[in-house]
Amino acid sequence: RPPTQVRNFSIIAHVDHGKSTLADRILERLGAMGERDKRDQTLDTLELERERGITIKSTPVRLSYTRDNGEVYTFNLIDTPGHVDFNYEVSRSLAACEGVLLLVDASQGVEAQTIVNAYLAIDSNLEIVPVINKIDLPAADPEGAAQELEDVIGIPAKDAVFASGKSGLGIPEILEAIVERIPPPPGDPEAPLKALIFDSFYDAYQGVILFVRVLEGTLKPKQPIMLFNSGKTFDVDRVGTFTPGLVVGESLPAGSVGWIAAGIRDIHDAQVGDTITQKDRPTPEPFPGFKPAQPVVFSGLYPTSTEDYRKLRDALEKLKLNDAAFNFEPETSEALGFGFRCGFLGLLHAEIIQERLEREYDLDLIATAPAVVYRVTLTNGDVFETQNPAEFPTRDRITSVEEPYIKLSIMLPEDYVGPVMQLLQERRGSMITMNYVGKRVELLYEVPFAEILYDFHDRLKSISRGYASMDYEQIGYREGDLRKVDIQVNNEVVDALAVIVHEDKAYSLGRKIVDKMAEVIPRQMFPVPVQATIGGKIIARATVKAYRKDVLAKCYGGDISRKKKLLEKQKKGRARMKQIGTVEVPQEAFLAVLSTE
Ligand code: GDP
Ligand code: MG
């Protein structure tokens, strides 16, 4: 089909405003879903996405739309994630589009992520079709939500389409708006090839599969191609489109969104953001690559059994291909042995990566507590950055320490402003501004990133009864009174358990960690002391009590099936444990700092 009859678009919104559900309705309407695969959130293909009900990866799908007047259009729809950790995925998807459907839940109105995503689209020069969604809800206020879009972002309220992904209301209007308002992709199918890699994954049979947006020229099988950044050359084996499964096609002309396989075996050769061109007829200029995502949260990942080290490395390499936003490098810990220091975009991202490693690659892992990157100035004048608390120098060698700060934006109903401001105060935040948007308030704060890392979002949600939403961006480093808290188990310092914390909070944090650890470390034949120290000085102490004789006796008596059950239970619990000296330390102990009291 000529590019004039192609529309490439994404659906963007705050999390839970109904992107995946609306995508389902569109797919259904355009006959892309057979009765057989009819299930909810069709584009959430990862097992994890279905379980958690969130979208992690952007998933493209090609659709055919016939207008009432008989004109036929090809739609390439790219579903996107909404959580702040995955903004990176969103901006990559947007590079493959000319327009977006910007969804707003009619009962919630504009939220923090609505604003961020709208600006991502505006910055990429995309046409925005505002959709006020979930108008079937009794609490829906479609006009109010449309007016908020106008007041907050400047999108005219009269442009909004009212819809419900649940009932299907408004879907025909949305399809028409896509054709009428979103421009067709530019590009000349005869020009030298220029295609953007916006995603990729590794297929055991075909090698690396690249998701591409063709900007100029045409991609076809047998074509010799070159990757601009790596300079590597390949011959295209297959090209195709998404249904959302992969279907083989004949060619991908300018304007298309599709995939190619080119026998690429080394995952390093294919980088997301790179430009593909024709080897013997290169495009004069590559697409300006994406800004590489900067991981901001770091944590060590160690296999519970040492033999799995290589398996973990292979898994990390493959996963990185599917998720360009995280990185890793080898790391050694006295307590945990050989593992990797991994960088993530946020805590949710870290959790998802660990879970995907364990499920998709069948690994048992121990993760150390997530930490931010600190900048340390030493007494000898050297400045260095460390993302690993274990590497933190001793107090006498430090002149100053700086920590990363964020600009935090919170949208909330005015009733909750008081308690939320108090929470921000506890987290060492300082206010920049406060804006009223109707009956709602936008709070802008500067806060140390470490302070919102763990349980901030949960606390914010519970304080505001679920009404507050947040977003943030990094704004650089500020000096702080930071200390390293060491943790000793059975009188030995465990390097992998060290944490960096603000002086004012060191004691309470040390207390929390040792109490939690004493609770989760299994009992031994002897009592095991757990201590938190600063510079060798003990600030908190707890004890893992020894087995009592009669408890042991009970285990050895009794019927056989009960004993078997007990053994099985022990075996299972052991999977995520690490032997440290004579003590077995479970995963929960390494994440004691995350526990909520
Ligand atoms: P996403 O995070 O933006 O992809 O949102 P989902 O599509 O996963 O939807 C979030 C929740 O809202 C789910 O429980 C949906 O069933 C519900 N939902 C989505 N669209 C509608 C709608 O139009 N009306 C109602 N009442 N609920 C909806
Ligand atoms: Mg979704």
TrEMBL record:
InterPro entries: EF-4, EFG_II, EFG_III/V, EFG_V-like, EFTu-like_2, G_TR_CS, LepA_C_sf, LepA_CTD. CDD domains: EF4_II, EF4_III, LepA, lepA_C. Its EC number is 3.6.5.n1. GO terms for biological process: positive regulation of translation. The keyword Disulfide bond does not apply. GO terms for cellular component: plasma membrane. GTP binds at D16, H17, G18, K19, S20, T21, N133, K134, I135, D136. It catalyses: GTP + H2O = GDP + phosphate + H(+). It is an enzyme of class 3 (hydrolase). Gene3D superfamilies: 3.30.70.240, Elongation factor 4, C-terminal domain (3.30.70.2570), Elongation Factor G (Translational Gtpase), domain 3 (3.30.70.870), P-loop containing nucleotide triphosphate hydrolases (3.40.50.300), Translation factors (2.40.30.10). It is found in: Cell membrane. It comes from the Bacteria. Signal peptide: none annotated. Keywords: Cell membrane, GTP-binding, Hydrolase, Membrane, Nucleotide-binding, Protein biosynthesis. Required for accurate and efficient protein synthesis under certain stress conditions. May act as a fidelity factor of the translation reaction, by catalyzing a one-codon backward translocation of tRNAs on improperly translocated ribosomes. Back-translocation proceeds from a post-translocation (POST) complex to a pre-translocation (PRE) complex, thus giving elongation factor G a second chance to translocate the tRNAs correctly. Binds to ribosomes in a GTP-dependent manner. Belongs to the GTP-binding elongation factor family. LepA subfamily. This is Elongation factor 4. It comes from Deinococcus hopiensis KR-140. The lineage of its organism: Bacteria, Thermotogati, Deinococcota, Deinococci, Deinococcales.
